[in-house]
Each structure stands twice: as structure tokens, then as C-alpha cells.
Write a structure and sequence with these properties.
The structure is a homodimer. With about 325 residues, the first copy, chain A, is of the alpha+beta class. In chain A, about 45% of the residues lie in helices and about 15% in strands. Chain A folds into 2 domains: about 100 residues, Phosphorylase Kinase, domain 1 (2-Layer Sandwich), CATH 3.30.200; about 200 residues, Alpha-Beta Complex (Aminoglycoside 3'-phosphotransferase, Chain: A, domain 2). Chains A and B meet through helix 1, strand 1 and strand 8 of A and helix 1, strand 1 and strand 8 of B.
């Protein structure tokens, strides 16, 4: 949650002038996104009736070589009616520009707020929206490998090292061997499409029980659709610490998904292990971030153990949960 | 620049329901304000046509006992046509509420962007708007002592101590004696009103050369109007480091002010020393903040020397600048 770069009003006005969106009216740096800076921009609009956008500046973690994939995907999904913001192209047709040496994109603003205590009805809608994205993305012409698959995540934990993992939590080093076992057993032949792969409540905007926006596709990649459902299940169906599973939410999410795209038998069978793979992913990234972040930095570190607890849960109860 | 508190969508929706502003549509934490957290809130509006607000949560530094003064002042100035946001009162008529144990206020959203390289025309408009505020505030019924007058600022520097000041910059301890001298010589009988006392470009929203908003009145207090003009002069007329004075900006600011409220002879004569008092104020607060902020915190510390340089400038050139 930060704005890493100061953009002056004059720079912003000049940037806005490169698009057919009218003149700059207002700009507020917003506290969203961890790998980029974002501004909520208001302009007079191409027709003078006002328009709003999110201006994103890519700061780190994102390879700008991937932007044609990420931004093209937004346009593709949006054109197919998914609740996904489209990219605004500049007067020369480009989906991104360079400002102050950094790459920026102007993206459609979507209304809605992210639920922090989702209802089953909301989870049902999110499941359905995720399936809609999977179906709509099937004919997207670009691909992007999942750079955070189970093997990569096992390697991240290995690079952290047992000693440093133990400093975070004495129970964390046990995840190392579990990660290797998991990587060796995850199925690789499930139906694939482009997946969001990070659909936490933060990345969903809702109005009541309707999904008004799915955002932050910067982990999107080509992978198994059921894995994306498993990620979303792990992200939505527990309290923050992962100690308490909410069966009504988990069930509604899967029902919502299947109302749009029924899972096949192989996918259903794979969900317990895919959910463990999803947990591994966040254990690995949180452990890495934890060790990269000084303890006294004014940044809240996310505890990897929150996802070790989910992992344990899926390990013990996966068969029943996804039956 | 931060949002210190996480507010859930459900908490925000419940808060919004206490006001006659329709339903919550969108909420974004914005990276503004150093003593509070702010959200840009969109609602469906009392009449269903949409409305926007700034939700401010008072985190620290602000004594909530002062809120009737600060928020009442906004309403007073706004009602008199100053470009100042009004406070939205809840359905029970209250200007502020308590949410999650913290005091919050819903404030009118004003369009505009803060200039980072102001033009003389913009400085002229800002001077005029400041004078307008001084005149409009004259009959505001509440008062608030200036807790950051020259004596208080000299004390802040003394509390920092020579050794620690020298750690920031070897030239900084010299400000101590200068501060005592200044505090003894500042005039105390100049025409007074309520002053903003922190009108940096960050706190002014503009559309082209028009002031569309003056914000962040949380240092407002009862004091000499010419001192406020001097603060604004020091805040607007230099490059960031204070090494380079822009005479066209400084002149336009004073001309703009006098186009609405001409200064009397005593005020004109006092401007050189008032401007030094303004510099002292920011030298003191920046030195204090610097020493309070760990060097490795992910927060940019503002260099007090930027205002020592301005102080030197006014000391040497004040008579000509304000002639």
C-alpha cells in the first residue's frame, strides 16, 4: 500500500493530453497495489461529461515485456463482457507509455468495494465471475508461463533456507519437504486457460452481491483453471489466520464456479492437492517477502503461517471439502 | 502519505448509512495527509446522481477537542464562498463520528490538482484566495491559539539539543540562537484573524489558474494575517531546497493578496521578520520530525536546512523582497 513515485500536476496533465479523455480535473495517489503506484484520475472526458481512470505506474516485480499480455488480456476479457477494466489506448493507439522513465498505463475505473467479510452470496458471484473469465480467456492469443508453479515455490523456500525459515516460525521449515513432495505429485494435464491466480477479496470490487470489477491481473498466466479456483478457495474461505474454515463460503464459491463452468472428474479429484499447491504458493511468497522486509520497516509483514494452517486444513480435510 | 488504518467495506457502508448521501459505491484509500488517513468515497448521492467525499480519520497530532474549531471553520468559510470544502453532517447533525474508536469526518470533495511548478498567475490566485479566507474568517466565533508560535518553535529546537541538531547538519545548531533572537523581536500587535498557517502548494487544489480548493486546515489558528502571507510566501516562492528564490512568484503572491486585502504599513514593515518566523517554524518541525523518524524507515525525511536557506535569504534580502 503505497505510492512510490511523486507525479507533479503538470506531468499528469501532459500525460492525460496524450489520450482522448479531455483535460485533467483531479488526481489522487491511492493506497493500492504492492508492485506499482496508482492514481485515481478524473478528467473532463472526451465528451465533456467527466470520466475516471486508474493510472498505474509499474515500479517493480513486473517485467514490462509482459505488459502486452496483461493489458491485452484486460481488453480481451472486457470486450467479452467480463467485469474487468479495459485499457485506455493513447491517441497513437498504444496501451502503455513511458513517463519519468517508468512505464504507465491508463485503465478504466470500475466502481465497487472489496468485501472484507464476504457473504456466501458474494462468494457465489465471485466463483461465477472466475469461471466466466476462464471461458472468455480461452481464445486469448497470447500465453504466459506460470513463473510461480509448485517447483518454483519449492525453490523459493529452499533459497530462504531452513535456518531463516525457523526464525520466522519454528514450524515453517517443515514446509520445505512438504513442498518438494507436493511439486512431485501435482497433476499437469488438467484443462487450462489464462488464470488470474491471485483473486483475493482485495482484487474483487463488488456492489452488494454483484461483482463489479476483477482487478490486478499481474500474476495472470497460462495454467490449470481448477488451480485458479483452488487459489480463490484458499483466499476467500478462511479467517485471516487460516485457523477457521467457512464451509458456506467455500461451498458457494465452487457452486458459483460450476454454475458457469462445471468441473470435470479429473479437476474435482485434483482440487485437494491443487488447494495445497495454492497454499504453498503464498507460504513461499510470504516467507520471501518477510525475510526481504526489515522488521522495523513501517510495513506490515504477512505471516506465512496463515497459509501453512490452510495447507494443513486441506491436507486433512481436502477430500470432504471438495467432495 | 499513508493510510494508517484498514477500514473494511462493511464498516464504510455502515458509516455512509449514517449520512444522507445514498449508498456506498466506491472507496479508495488516498496517499494524502500526514496526521490522518483519508479515503476518496463515492456514493449514489442523496438524489441518486452520485456524490464524492473525502473521509478523514484523525490518527494523531490532532486533538479531537479542536475538531469543532477546524470543521466549523470549513463550514464558515465555505458558506462565505471561499474555495474550502464544507463538512457533511450526519443525519443527527454531527460534524464528526467515531468509527473503530477513532474520530472521522466526511468532507466535501473538491476537484483540482496541486501545482508543483506554479506559475505567477497561479500564485496571484493563491494570494487572493488567502486574503479572501482572512476576511471571511474575521467573524468566525471560535478561536484557537497558535501552538506553534516563535517561542514554541524556539523551544522545540532547544529540546532537540545542539548535538542532535548538528547530526542532521553541522550548520543547524546556529538556528538555536537565531530562533531565540527572533522570538524576542516578532511583532505581536498586527491585524489578526484565523490563519491557515500551512498553505503549501500541496494544500491548494487548482484548475488552471483558478483555486478550486484550499484544504488541510489542521494548523489553522488565531494569529496575524501577515504571518500567514509570509508562510505562504516561503512555501511557494522557492525551489525545494530553498536555494533559489523566484521573484515573479513571490511578487504575484503578494500582489494577489493585496488585490483583495491591502496590507497596512505595519504589516508591510513586518513581512521580512515574519518570513523569518515562518522559516523558523518549518526548521523546528522538520528537525523534530527528522529526529523522531528512524533513518531506515521507508519515509522521506524533509531536510530542515531547506528552510534555513530560505531564512538566510529573508535575513539578507527581506527588505528588498517585500519593498
Amino acid at each position: 500500500m503505497a505510492v512510490y513515485t511523486h507525479l507533479g500536476a503538470e506531468q499528469l496533465a501532459e500525460l492525460v493530453a496524450a489520450y482522448d479523455v479531455g483535460e485533467l480535473v483531479s488526481a489522487k495517489g491511492i493506497a493500492e497495489g504492492i508492485s506499482n503506484s496508482n492514481w485515481l484520475i478524473e478528467t473532463s472526458g472526451a465528451d465533456g461529461t467527466g470520466a475516471r481512470f486508474i493510472l498505474t505506474m509499474y515500479e517493480r516485480r513486473i517485467d514490462t515485456g509482459d505488459l502486452p499480455f496483461f493489458l491485452g488480456l484486460l481488453d480481451h476479457l472486457s470486450a467479452k463482457g467480463c467485469p474487468v477494466p479495459s485499457t485506455i489506448h493513447d491517441c497513437a493507439g498504444s496501451a502503455f507509455r513511458v513517463l519519468d522513465g517508468k512505464t504507465v498505463a491508463l485503465i478504466e475505473f470500475l466502481p465497487g468495494v472489496s468485501p472484507t467479510r464476504p457473504t456466501a452470496q458474494q462468494a457465489q458471484a465471485v466463483g461465477a465471475a472466475l469461471a466466466q473469465v476462464h471461458l472468455a480467456a480461452a481464445d486469448f492469443p497470447l500465453t504466459r508461463a506460470n513463473t510461480l508453479d509448485a517447483e518454483a515455490n519449492a525453490r523459493i523456500l529452499e533459497d530462504c533456507g531452513e535456518d531463516r525459515l525457523a526464525q520466522i516460525d519454528p514450524a515453517l521449515p517443515a514446509a520445505l519437504q512438504r513442498a518438494r513432495d507436493l511439486a512431485a505429485h501435482l497433476p499437469s494435464d488438467l484443462p487450462a486457460s489464462i488464470i488470474h491466480s491471485d483473486l483475493f477479496p482485495d482484487n474483487v470490487l463488488m456492489r452488494g452481491s454483484t461483482v463489479s470489477g476483477m482487478i490486478d491481473f499481474y500474476f495472470a498466466c497460462s495454467d490449470a483453471m481448477a488451480y485458479d479456483l483452488a487459489v480463490t478457495h484458499a483466499a476467500w474461505s478462511f479467517d485471516k489466520s487460516g485457523s477457521c474454515y467457512d464451509a458456506a463460503i467455500g461451498r458457494a464459491l465452487i457452486d458459483g464456479y460450476q454454475s458457469v463452468r462445471p468441473l470435470d472428474a479429473a479437476e474435482r479429484n485434483a482440487l485437494p492437492i491443487l488447494a495445497q499447491g495454492a497454499c504453498l504458493r503464498f507460504v513461499a511468497s510470504r516467507a520471501e517477502d518477510w525475510l526481504d522486509t526489515p522488521g522495523d520497516a513501517h510495513v506490515t509483514r504477512k505471516d506465512p503461517m496463515d497459509f501453512v494452517r490452510r495447507w494443513d486444513f486441506y491436507d486433512e480435510n481436502g477430500q470432504q471439502v471438495f467432495a
